[in-house]
Amino acid sequence: MAQVAQPDYDKPDDAGEIRVKVICLGDSAVGKSKLVERFLMDGYKPQQLSTFALTLFNHKTEISGQKVSVDFWDTAGQERFNNMHPSYYHQAHACILVFDSTRKVTYKNLPNWYKELREYRPEIPCLCAGNKIDVDPSVTSKTFNFAKKHNMPFYFVSASDGTNVVKMFRDAIKAASKYKSNPTDIMDEIMQELENFELETGEEKKKEGEKEEQAAGGDAPAS
Ligand SMILES: Nc1nc2c(ncn2[C@@H]2O[C@H](COP(=O)(O)OP(=O)(O)O)[C@@H](O)[C@H]2O)c(=O)[nH]1
Ligand SMILES: [Mg+2]
Question: Which residue spans traverse the membrane (predicted)?
Fold first, then answer.
């Protein structure tokens, strides 16, 4: 089989810059591509890897003063066949498992994706996201135990209106770069931070609710 023309992420990093690979996994049409697109908006340079119809999107950023060059990998729909080519997993530093909060079957399939991920990358940090919460925001009151069971940070997100998208990708990049420089402890840190984050947003929601009550019917415009 032909060699995949992909970067070597295990090579020593350039001066002052950590290079990481982040992948999204999950059923077809859960919104993996849209989430990456949403996060990157116009600041990305897609680069086609011809052999396996994979695209990678490079993103340069800083995490705690450290320069990080992130390649987000995206598929051309191979997930339709319920598995990914090994090159997709190769040298990945973090994974976001995505399901569609409006389609239960995509949640039920998470264990299959997770199992395949672990066959190739037993140790990398993994995050979990329920996407499309804009369709029915009431899903956010439901519990999705898969993430908790595997000790993963969990995010309700919407690629359409942007809810939690930046937060989730920033956490994924943080996890990926920490994993690369020191492959321990990062998940504990993120879990801890996320607990505080949930408390904060909970408080904010309460405050917003109070404001709305006072403002008698100020509906937010639909996006
Ligand atoms: N309402 C809504 N639709 C979404 C959202 N994210 C993706 N979609 C739609 O879901 C479909 C599949 O998205 P895509 O990113 O191609 O899914 P992928 O196959 O997982 O990469 C597209 O029609 C998107 O417009 C979202 O957050 N909300
Ligand atoms: Mg896609």
Answer: none
Contact 167, 157 (CB under 8 A): no
DSSP letters, 159-185, are TTT-TTHHHHHHHHHHHHHHHHH--SS
Which residues does a 6 A CB cutoff place in the pocket of ligand 1? 28-34, 131-132, 134-135, 158-160
**Best of 34, 54, 74, 84 to mutate for ligand 1, by most ligand atoms within 8 A of CB?**
34
135-186, pLDDT tens digit by residue? Answer: 999 999 999 999 999 999 999 999 999 999 999 999 999 999 989 987 666 6
Type of residue numbered 135: V
Q: How is domain 2-183 classified at the architecture level of CATH?
A: 3-Layer(aba) Sandwich (3.40)
CB atoms closer than 10 angstroms to residue 201: 13
Tokens 């997930």: give the residue. 79
